[in-house]
Design a protein that fits this description.
Number of domains: 3
Structural class: alpha/beta
Distance between the termini: 83 Å
CATH class of the largest domain: Alpha Beta
Strand content: 5-15%
Bound molecules: pyridoxal-5'-phosphate
CATH topology of the largest domain: Aspartate Aminotransferase, domain 2
Mean pLDDT: 93
Helix content: 25-40%
Shape: globular
Order of helices and strands: HHHHHEHEHEHEHEHEEEEHEEHEEH
Number of helices: 13
Low-confidence stretches: 456-462
CATH superfamily of the largest domain: Type I PLP-dependent aspartate aminotransferase-like (Major domain)
Length: 462
């Protein structure tokens, strides 16, 4: 008689305290259908964690503009507030108050004309939603003006550089607006005043100017564009408002270039968006949309709801949204203050410039931007380098864990292939040195691989 009864593999694994994921060889994991039964939470979590190991390391992801490092206190605060739905204002009045404070803090930072605590704006899930809201407000205001003047309201258009982030093309397609994309040129990688002006007509709902172009980090000259549009209106042409897409720059320019007039100091700027989850230093999930004043936000876009207890107004695409990132934004405002933001942004940009200089010193590369504005720069291979491409460089860096995107520029510069590095808080000079070392190694490796091929090609030719 056996000393022990036969046990099932599950029991055996539990007995040995081995997680069933590793203890049961044939544990089936459902991938594309809901499993029939349950799993203990620890086992399910282990399965998910294990799969996620195959993702890239977020801190080494130099493609994203979004926060990947946060202080433990911020993390804890987010965990504490994960269950708060921002839309339940009546139930969570203090979260609503915190959102209102953030909007007012940003309105002051961006020099809104009134600072009476009643700034006009909303939190969003990110700059994309904020862009949709900004674009919708432009469209509705334009339509109201046209209707009042007895003019047709079909075929509205929006003027912007071909370097806009995809959210603006989405806005145009989703909300039936013609995108007027001004092509970029070899020495003009973003929108400038005269080409913008040339695209404007009576059906233009607005011009989008970007503070921190996604392609190379540069600021578009919002002031020049505003002056050109002032001139257009003064000469009897259409009166075209500006929306500033300050997804990244909205949290950088006020601290590092306080004298630069890009915001509500320019009367032509009707609205601004920024991502709290980029240089606002909040993890993914928060953006901001602000309007100059009540008149800039048409009332027909704001809905009043009374089924949450109390009556409240909402202007957003989604109804339910997490409150935690808004709370985390306020934490950062309190934690860093003006001086802290200034210091963090400056150090981050200094690191970006340090890495840009290091890249510039490497023979095959040429900088397209040098983190002059936001801590972002782009670079390309010099014209003579034909043995390998920026895509090869990106792939080789991946072998060291670095995620550096390679892509081509928008029309009319599609032949310009670049790499881009986004430096964020949490990327130290020390990591920058390691990145440069690996970039040097990557180049050496690619050149070595290319050399025999070049020799073979040459002998074949002879
Ligand atoms: C200039 C610009 N606008 C809008 C966006 C979209 O922002 P989000 O990812 O917050 O939706 C980005 C994202 O990189 C951006 O760089």
């Amino acid at each position: 008689m056996p000393l022990r009864r036969r046990v099932s593999p599950e029991e055996r694994a539990a007995e040995l305290s081995v997680n069933p994921v590793y203890g049961i060889g044939d544990l089936e994991i459902c991938r594309y259908e809901l499993p029939h039964g349950e799993l203990p939470p620890g086992v399910a979590a282990q399965i998910v964690r294990d799969e996620l190991m195959l993702d890239g390391n977020a801190r080494l992801n130099l493609a994203t503009f979004v926060t990947t490092w946060m202080e433990p206190d911020q993390r804890a605060l987010i965990a504490d507030t994960l269950d708060k739905n921002i839309v339940d204002r009546d139930e969570y009045p203090q979260t609503a108050e915190i959102e209102r404070r953030c909007i007012n803090i940003l309105a002051r930072l961006w020099n809104a004309p009134e600072d009476d605590g009643n700034a006009v704006g909303t939190s969003t899930t990110g700059s994309s939603e904020a862009a949709m809201l900004g674009g919708l407000a432009l469209k509705h205001r334009w339509r109201a003006r046209r209707e009042a003047a007895g003019l047709p309201t079909d075929r509205p258009n929006l003027v912007m550089g071909a370097n806009v982030q995809v959210c603006w093309e989405k806005f145009c397609r989703y909300f039936d607006v013609e995108p007027r994309l001004v092509p970029v040129e070899p020495r003009r990688h973003h929108l400038t005043a005269q080409p913008a002006l040339a695209q404007c007509d009576e059906r233009t709902i607005g011009v989008v100017a970007i503070l921190g172009s996604t392609f190379d980090g540069s600021y578009e000259p919002v002031g020049d564009i505003a002056t050109a549009l002032d001139g257009l209106a003064a000469s009897g042409g259409p009166d075209v408002p500006i929306h500033v897409d300050a997804a990244s720059g909205g949290f950088v320019a006020p601290f590092l270039e306080p004298g630069l007039e890009w915001d509500f100091r320019l009367p032509r700027v009707a609205s601004i968006n920024a991502s709290g989850h980029k240089y606002g230093h909040v993890p993914p999930g928060v953006g901001w949309a602000l309007w100059r004043d009540e008149d800039s936000l048409p009332r027909d876009l704001v809905f009043s709801v009374d089924y949450l207890g109390g009556s409240d107004s909402t202007f957003s695409l989604n109804f339910s949204r997490p409150g935690a990132p808004v709370v985390a934004q306020y934490f950062n405002f309190l934690r860093l203050g003006h001086e802290g933001y200034e210091r963090v942004q400056r150090v981050t940009r200094d690191v970006a410039r340090f890495v840009a200089d290091g890249v510039d010193a490497l023979a095959p590369f040429e900088l397209l931007s040098r983190a002059e504005h936001i801590p972002v720069f782009a670079f390309k291979l010099r014209d003579g380098v034909t043995n390998y491409t920026v895509y090869d460089v990106s792939r080789t860096l991946r072998e060291h864990g670095w995620l550096v995107p390679a892509y081509h520029f928008p029309p009319e510069l599609e032949d310009l292939h670049v790499l881009r590095i986004v430096v964020r808080n949490g990327f130290s000079r020390d990591l920058g040195e390691l990145l440069l070392r690996h970039l040097r190694d990557a180049v050496a490796e690619l050149e070595q691989q290319a050399a025999p091929r070049a020799k073979v090609d040459a002998s074949f030719h002879h």
